[in-house]
From TrEMBL:
ATP binds at K65. It comes from Rubroshorea leprosula. This is non-specific serine/threonine protein kinase. The keyword Transferase applies. Belongs to the protein kinase superfamily.
Length: 202
């Protein structure tokens, strides 16, 4: 459920922010902006930079500041589609802030890094845990491909987009972002999959 559009002012900028929450949230844009600093950065990728932020109530969230690239005209509408996705193996999009120059996607925070970091680290990953991660990732993809309306194709599945919690439960991240941003392969998009939200390989 979307809890309606809100317009907020920030003490750091005169440019107003539009806020679209996808669940009941108790913080302001100023609570978010104070964490968009290098010391709070936890990830960086093709779509932007991710920061870890602690809200006044102690809740931890991940804030993805999208790169200042042109976005598709239907960006806000399609973000709302992504915001309604709820599955145990998919990172939950909980809100979206934007103004004329900045777009911020707010996610629930997953504490144990990503699969790429785990595989490159010194920790010995047993086969039972590997199987658990693989099955969780497959469940998340199956939900996006078969149970969402419209269908959502991830378009950017890789180890760095599989996040892990403290129990090594897998969560798919960055689903749908390649569709939202004008990325180089947009000429290959979804005309071949009627109604699909995403990309399928040629």
């Amino acid at each position: 459920m979307t809890h309606g559009y809100k317009v907020e002012k920030s003490s750091e900028s005169e440019d107003p922010w539009t806020f679209i929450p996808f669940q009941l949230l108790n913080f302001t844009i100023d609570n978010i902006l104070e964490y968009l600093k290098d010391e709070h950065e936890i990830g960086r990728g093709g779509f932007g930079v991710v920061y870890k932020a602690e809200m006044p109530n102690g809740e931890l969230i991940a804030v993805k500041k999208l790169n200042p690239e042109p976005a598709v005209d239907s960006f806000t509408t399609e973000v709302q589609i992504l915001g309604h996705i709820r599955h145990r193996n998919i990172v939950k999009l909980i809100g979206y802030y934007s103004n004329r120059s900045v777009k911020l996607l707010l996610y629930n925070y997953i504490p144990n890094g990503n699969l790429q970091q785990l595989l490159r680290g010194s920790e010995n990953l047993d086969w039972e845990t590997r199987h658990k991660i693989a099955v969780g990732s497959a469940h998340g993809l199956a939900y996006l491909h078969h149970d969402c309306v419209p269908t959502i194709l991830h378009r950017d599945v890789k180890c760095s987009n599989i996040l892990l919690d403290s129990e090594y439960e897998a969560y798919l991240a960055d689903f749908g972002l390649a569709k939202l941003m004008n990325t180089p392969n947009d000429h290959l998009t979804i005309s071949r999959v009627t109604g699909a939200f995403g990309y399928i390989s040629p």
